[in-house]
Write a structure and sequence with these properties.
By secondary structure, the chain is of the alpha/beta class. The protein has eight helices and 13 strands. The structure holds NADP nicotinamide-adenine-dinucleotide phosphate (NAP) and ligand 3JN. The site of NADP nicotinamide-adenine-dinucleotide phosphate has 27 residues, from helix 1, helix 2 and helix 8.
Length: about 350
């Protein structure tokens, strides 16, 4: 498949990176192991030396028997069943919300801690919604249901950049437009983009299947389904999840989410209005010190974050930082991150790292 993804870099992102001798090992299950997010979870567990004893790979009956590689060894994929979680300490879930709705509580009841990548539990008041750079303390709340929720990818990269600014200048309002990669819609969506690109250049008819419209050489201003208020679910996820993670219901957020013909990395144009005046240079200074953030902002050198540079990286890249001259206290910026890594799999593994270090 015609994807561009660099070798993963694992710098500047908080959390434990290597297991040292004598440390406890954990039995880990990856649910949705054959998907775009699941495959990245397996890779990140390996890259960061997560202290795994047994790795259990679970998917639907379609994939049962397939073999995936972890730490140089082949591991057989098993069909997800009610008794899949016996002896498991941590389960990383990404099989879709309807499957998590059934199996995450079963896994939690079997005694493991679930870190769920779907939207199923994100707004549940008894389930912490965590971005380690922003609200790691919230992980403590996992004990109520045995479940920790991973936010939506578009929310994660935005709050990593906004929280350090909020702490200094208090953000009153956020206006965000996203440019979301095809990988956010799963591995079949990436194949659709690749095939449509070839078909279009070869003069063949396009047959949309995952997306409602052709994605090659196009933009689709709809991600997920529409709600009664004319926003999409993806847009309202950004609104509601931002308030919960930042622990501030007063922040006003409005979003427009757009699918673009890019394989990896979501980009976001973000405008903020702050209570306290903050200059662009001060924002740059704050973000240069912020955990998990890399500032790429040198207009003279045409340096700004781009999806092809962020793919395969762990950091959230921020650039085009400038004052919004149309209002008193406004800042514009451009935020890019690998949606499958920081937007999903890496964030989940970082949560697991804090969990074993502080709570298990
Ligand atoms: P994907 O590439 O389509 O993979 C889906 C995975 O779920 C596959 O492993 C699939 O197994 C498995 N699965 C599907 N139905 C199942 C069932 N009934 N029982 C067990 N496993 C089942 O999708 P993806 O991109 O990895 O995303 C999966 C989910 O992760 C999404 O639906 C979403 O909830 C979440 N997600 C979250 C973010 C985020 O923003 N944090 C980003 C992307 C995705 P088979 O191969 O056997 O079909
Ligand atoms: O489209 C994207 O770029 C991100 C998609 C995330 C997603 C896709 C299908 C179902 C989600 C999510 O994480 O919110 C869900 C879901 O769990 O509802």
């Amino acid at each position: 498949m015609a994807v561009t993804k660099k070798k993963a870099q694992t710098k500047a992102v908080p959390g434990k990176k290597t297991a040292s001798k004598g440390k406890r090992l954990f039995n880990v299950a990856v649910v949705g192991a054959t998907g775009a997010v699941g495959a990245e979870m397996i890779q990140i567990l390996e890259e960061r030396g997560f202290p795994v004893n047994e790795l259990k790979l679970l998917a639907s009956e379609r994939s049962a028997g397939a073999k995936l590689t972890f730490n140089g060894k082949k591991v057989k994929v098993e069909e997800l069943k009610k008794d899949s979680f016996k002896g498991i300490d941590i389960a990383l879930f990404s099989p879709g919300a309807s499957v998590s709705a059934i199996y995450a509580p079963i896994a939690a009841k079997a005694g493991c801690v679930v870190i769920d990548n779907t939207s199923q539990f994100r707004m549940d008041k008894d389930v912490p919604l965590v971005v380690p750079e922003v609200n790691p303390h919230a992980i403590a709340g996992y004990k109520k249901k045995g479940i920790i929720a991973n936010p939506n990818c578009s929310t994660i990269q935005m709050v990593v950049a906004l929280k350090p600014i909020h702490d200094v200048a208090k953000i009153k309002r956020v206006v965000v437009s996203t440019y979301q990669a095809a990988s956010g819609a799963g591995k079949e969506a990436m194949e659709e983009l690749a095939h449509q690109t070839a078909d279009l250049l070869s003069g063949r008819d396009l047959k949309p299947s995952v997306f409602a419209h052709p994605i090659a050489f196009n933009l689709i201003p709809q991600i997920d389904s529409f709600l009664d208020n004319a926003y999409t679910k993806e847009e309202m996820k950004m609104v509601n999840e931002t308030k919960k993670i930042m622990e501030d219901d007063s922040i006003k957020v409005t979003a427009t989410t757009v699918r673009v013909p890019v394989f990896y990395s979501h980009s976001e144009s973000v405008n903020i209005e702050t209570a306290k005046k903050i200059a662009a240079d001060e924002v740059k200074k704050i973000l240069k010190k912020a955990p998990g953030v890399k500032v790429v902002d040198d207009p003279a050198k045409k340096a700004y974050p781009m999806p092809i540079d962020a793919a395969g990286c762990d950091e959230t890249f921020v650039g085009r930082i400038r004052e919004d001259e149309s209002i008193k206290n406004g800042i514009n910026m451009w935020i890019v991150a690998d949606n499958i890594r920081k937007g999903a799999a890496l964030n989940a593994v970082q949560i697991a790292e804090i969990l074993i270090e502080k709570y298990l």
